[in-house]
């Protein structure tokens, strides 16, 4: 009898544990009980829908066509390069920008097999369906950098230029020396250190870890001010105010297929090492830029400096006294676009 009771208890505990670690199914936009569809969308070749937003001059009149990829816990409305981009610069340069919800965010269908490669192919298909031409520009902010690195790896022939704004650099990229990644790893807050460990080594526990109440989890997902620099604290109200009208849309299909899957993909070992990439513009027909704040509490500046050292064809711009939210600073959009598109010297 005791043995049977123990077996029943074990089965019950196993069932409870399984339910605790299993993410709930996503609430697909347009499905019964799911959020409504409000954005224009394209249907990708694999059947998924990708929601997008256009701004700037009409694409048929544009000289520069840019695909923008948003960061962690954001959506198509979060276009940091346009936040401080003046109307005069948009009109005078002829800038068109299309942003899209990365899979699982906003109104884009989740993609359980999402990788940097699949994101790059999503970008290419979006550009083709919107008829942006044989070449276009890509720009990614923070976690959106994974898609830009993917574009540089898988569709470099389609790019006119690439820009990365405080792109997340993976501490498990093979090209980083162990002493550098070790320091970056252990300099993290304890809560983020454990979040990174779980997402990398035990990805199937990521949902449970980020929803359990026993231990502190991701400070990034919680928008903790502890990870912000002085400049970030000054710019945070501007960032929060810009998100207020649509914040509920960002995770509306479920936290797992948006922010939790983002963590897993950004932290795991990729199928390629960005530091093995070759110059996509050997004849100077385009350029690749990285902008990085030297007081960024989310992306260690030492990692970005090493990437720039390993890839001398990348034009690296380090912003003194700046944090992760530097694109929201006054006039930053104009400066970034003039450097990115016209080759002007970037001056902070």
From TrEMBL:
Q: Give the highest taxon in the source lineage.
A: Eukaryota
**Which InterPro entries does the record match to this protein?**
AB_hydrolase_1, AB_hydrolase_fold
Would I find Signal among this entry's keywords?
yes
Q: Which Pfam families match?
A: Abhydrolase_6
List keywords of the entry alphabetically: Signal
The residue ranges of the AB hydrolase-1 domain are: 66-329
Q: Which GO terms describe its molecular function?
A: hydrolase activity
Span of the secretion signal?
1-17
SUPFAM superfamilies, per the entry? alpha/beta-Hydrolases
Q: What is this protein called?
A: AB hydrolase-1 domain-containing protein
